[in-house]
Design a protein that fits this description.
Layout lengths: L5 H12 L3 H15 L16 H5 L2 H19 L4 H4 L1 H10 L5 H18 L5 H18 L5
Helix pairs in contact: 1-8, 2-4, 2-7, 7-8
């Protein structure tokens, strides 16, 4: 079980309470698909992903980016039991979708970059530490079925 300090909880909740999900979610997923093009293989049904502009303007990618970011709300509401919270999603991604679990970390890293860019100087080392700890716990939970 992960131990969260009051400061970490406050930072994480503060980050997500100020996020524009319609902006940040699509940007994070687009960044992941552009920077790590091998991740595109899971999105074959999403249409044209031939270049960065096609990815950025793809409405299915934007919608899924929002879905992913909203999926983190479940972890926010269940910070003391994130593994159980994501048990079903872990099974889905491993057994049905066959997503490489390393991709969860890549997407988390892209989300961190997008959040940092949005927050600017407010993205302090303490903010980064709390966000990356949170995302690492989520990534671990999503990859649980693979172990």
């Amino acid at each position: 079980m992960v131990e969260w300090t009051d400061q970490e909880r406050a930072i994480i909740n503060g980050i997500f309470s100020n996020l524009d999900y319609d902006d940040i979610g699509p940007k994070a997923l687009c960044r992941c698909l552009i920077v790590y093009p091998w991740t595109q293989r899971y999105f074959g049904a999403f249409g044209n992903l031939y270049n960065a502009e096609a990815i950025k303007s793809n409405p299915k990618i934007a919608a899924h980016g929002k879905t992913v970011l909203h999926g983190l709300d479940r972890a926010l509401k269940n910070m003391d039991n994130i593994k159980a919270t994501y048990a079903e999603l872990s099974v889905l991604h491993s057994e049905k979708l066959h997503v490489d679990p390393d991709n969860f970390k890549l997407l988390g890293d892209c989300l961190t970059i997008v959040v940092a860019a949005k927050m600017g100087s407010a993205f302090t080392p303490e903010t980064q530490a709390a966000l990356q700890k949170f995302l690492a716990v989520v990534v671990s939970a999503l990859g649980r079925q693979y172990h």
